[in-house]
Amino acid sequence: MSPPLLELRQIEKSYAGVRALRGVSFDLRPGEVHALLGENGAGKSTLVKVITGAVEPDAGAILLGGRALARLTPAEAHALGIACIYQQPALFPELSVAENLALRLDPATGLRRVDWKARRATAAQLLARLGAPIPPDAAVRTLSMPEQQLVEIACALGAGARIVIMDEPTAALTQREQELLFKVIDELRADGVGIIYISHRLGEIFRLADRVTVLRDGESVGTCPAGAINEAGLIKLMVGREVSQIYPPRTGAPGAPVLKLEAVGCSVSGVENVSLEIRAGEVLGLAGLVGAGRTELAHILFGLTPATSGRILIEGGAKTIRSPREAQELRIAYVPEDRRRHGVILEMPIAHNATLAIHRRIFPRGWLRDRAERDLTLDYMRQLAIKAAGPEAKGGSLSGGNQQKVALARWLATQPRLLILDEPTQGIDVGAKSEIHRLIRQLTAEGIAVLLISSDLPEVVGMSDRIAVMRGGTLVAELPGGADPHAVMAAALGQGGKGEAA
Amino acid sequence: MKENFREWSVAGALLAVLVALRFLAPGFYQAQPLLSLATREAPVLLVACGAALVILSRQIDISLGSQFGVVGVCIGLLAGTGCPAWLLPPAAIALGALLGAINGALVAGLGLPSIVITLATMVSWREGLRLLRQGEFVTLPDGLQWLGLAQAAGQWTVVLSALVLLVLLALALRNLAAGRFVYAVGSDAEAARLAGLRPRRVTFLTFVAAGAFTGLAAMLNLIQSPQVDPKSGTGLELKAIAAVVVGGIAISGGRGSLWGVLPGVLLLACISPALTHLHVEAYWEKAIQGGVILLAVVADGLRSRRAGKGQS
Q: What is the ipTM metric for this complex?
C-alpha cells in the first residue's frame, strides 16, 4: 500500500477553553476520496483549517508524505499542494477566468509584464483537462455556480495540488451538475490526487468515498471503508444514537384550502401560470432544479416580487400581496433560503431575532415588555430545542441548525396559517435535520399549511402530502407524497431528462 | 456588565483620565471652568446622539455640522424678527428635521450612498451660509442669552437638557419598537425587510431624527452667546462621529448603545483643558484625539476578530 499523502496525529485545538479537536488522527492516501462527516460543530471546519494552515494546532503532528512539518502556514500549505474548494467559490467576479487563474497560479511580482497569451493558454488547457466548456475570457460573474466551482478546481489542478479539500461542493448544484462534478472527482482520483470530501448528503458519500471518517464532538469516532458501513450506521456514528425514522409519519387528514393560486405569474421574476392549492395541515412539496422558479414563487406569495397576473385566494377570498408586511397581515410566513445571510440577524440576540416580526405584541403601546419577550423566547427555545447559552446569545454564535430554528421561531410567533420553508435543512447536520422534520409534522398537526421548497429529493418525497414540480418558471407536474423520486426528478428535468437542465 | 463591556471600558478610560488629572493637574478641578466645559460640549453630545442613530442604521451623515450652522443662523434671524422665544426651540427642531429629511429622502428614497449625499449637502449648506452672510455674525436680541436666566442657571439648563435627552433617547432605543428596527436595519437591512419591516422608512426617519437633534443642539449653542457665527458647527460632524466611535458604536452599523456616547464625548472634550493644565502645547490636542479614536477602533477590531474565531 502506498504511504499516506497526509497524516494527522493526535491533533488538539481549543478556542477560548472550548476544545474543538480532541486528539484527532486522520490520514489521506493518494488516489482516494476520504469523506469527512459529522454534525455541525463536530470539528470538521477546524480540522480543515488545520490542514490548510489557517489555524495552528495546540498539539499533535502533521506529516506530509511521511515528513513531519514543524509549522504550516496557508502559503506553505499552498506550496505543498494542498488546495481547498469552498461551498461558495472565492473568485473575483469582475475578472476573467484566465485572470482569476493567473492570480492564484502566477507567483505575484507586481511590476512584471503580463503575458496574456500564456495566461489564456494555461487557462484553456486546465479547463480542457476538466472537460469544462468555459471560455477563458468570460468574466467570472457571468458564470453559473458549478462553472465557478470548476474554475476553483482548475486553480487547484494548476497549482499542482495533490490534496484537494472539498467542503460541501454540491450544496448549490443541480443533480446534473453534481454528476459532472463527480466525474471530475473520479478523474482527479485516477491521477493520484487525494480528496477530502465533506458533505451532509449521504448518497454522495457512498457514490464517491473510498473511506469515511466520522467526527463527533471534536473526536474521531471511527474511520472505515465506505463499503463496510451503510447509511443507518453512519447516521448512528454521527449522532451517537439511533435515529429511529428518517421521516416521521404523516398524521391526520388535510383540512380546508388555505391558499389557492389561479394562473399566477410575475413578469419580473419569470414565473408563469402557476395554479395550485394548499390545504390546512398539509405539506405541499415544491420540487425542481435550482432556477426552476421555486424561490421566485415563494417571493410572490410573500410580496417580495408581487404577482403581475392571475389570482391569489386566501381562505376563498381574492387578495393582493404587495409587501412582506401585507403577507404577514394575511398570516403568511416565509423562512428564506440562505439563513446565514438573511434568515437570522447575526449581530442580534436570539430574543430580538425571535420577536422581530411580532413587535406589536412585544411592544404593546410602543414600550418593550422585557418579560414577555424573554418568556416567549424561552418558550420557543424549549419547544424547538434551540441549543444556546440563553436568549441573549447572538444569532451568529449558533450552529446552522439552531439558526434555522431561530428563524423558524420568528415566524411561528406570528401564528401563520401558511408557512413557506425555503431549503430549511440545507447545510445543517443530520440530527438537526430530523428535528426540523419532526417540527414540520407538529406544525401541520396544528393545522398550519406548509409549502416546503427543497432540493433534497428524499426530503421532498418523504415529507410532502403532495409534490408540485416546477420547471422553467411554471408548474409541470403534481405527484402524490411518497412518489418515486425518479419520477419527481424526471418531471423536474423534463420528459426524458434532457434539454432545459443545461 | 459583560453585555455592556464596551461602554464600561470607555467610562473606565474616562475615569482613569480624570483620576490621573486629579494628581497631575489639580487645577483642572474648578467648578466654574468645568461647568463651562460641560455647557460647551452639551450641543456636541446632542449632535453625537443624532450621528449615533444614523450610524446604528448603517449610514453616515457628515452634513450635521453644516445643518447646525444653518439652524443657528436661521433661528438667530428668526429671533431678530421679534418672534417669541418659546417658539424658537420647536422651530429649531423642525428646521433640523427638515434638513435631515432632505438627506433621508435622497438616501432612502433613491438608494444613494449616504456618504456622497451628505457630503453634497454638507458643502451646499455651508456655502449657502457663506453666500447669505458673507461671514457676518447674526446679532441676537437682548435677553435671549441664557434664556434670560443668570449665567450659572442657564448653563445648568443647557447641560441638563442635553443629558435628559440622551437618557430619553437611550431608553427609547432599547424600549421602543422603533429602536429595535434601527438595530435590525443596521445589522441586516435585507433580513429586516424579510421580517416585514420597512428599512427605507427606518433609514429616512433616522436622518430626520439626527437633523432634529442637531437643530436642538444649535438652539442650545445659540443661547450661549450674544451672536451667532455663520461658521459655527464647522467640523462638528467629525467630532460627533469620533465620539460615537469612541463610545463603542460600530461604524458598520447595528452594534453599540448610546450609553457609551456620553463618556465618548467627555473623553474627547477633556483633552484640551487637560493639556492646558499639564502645560502641554495645545497643538497636541488633535493628535491625541486622533490617537484616542485610533485606539478605540483598533480595540473594536481586535475584539470582533477574536469573537469571529472559535466557531467551527
A: 0.86
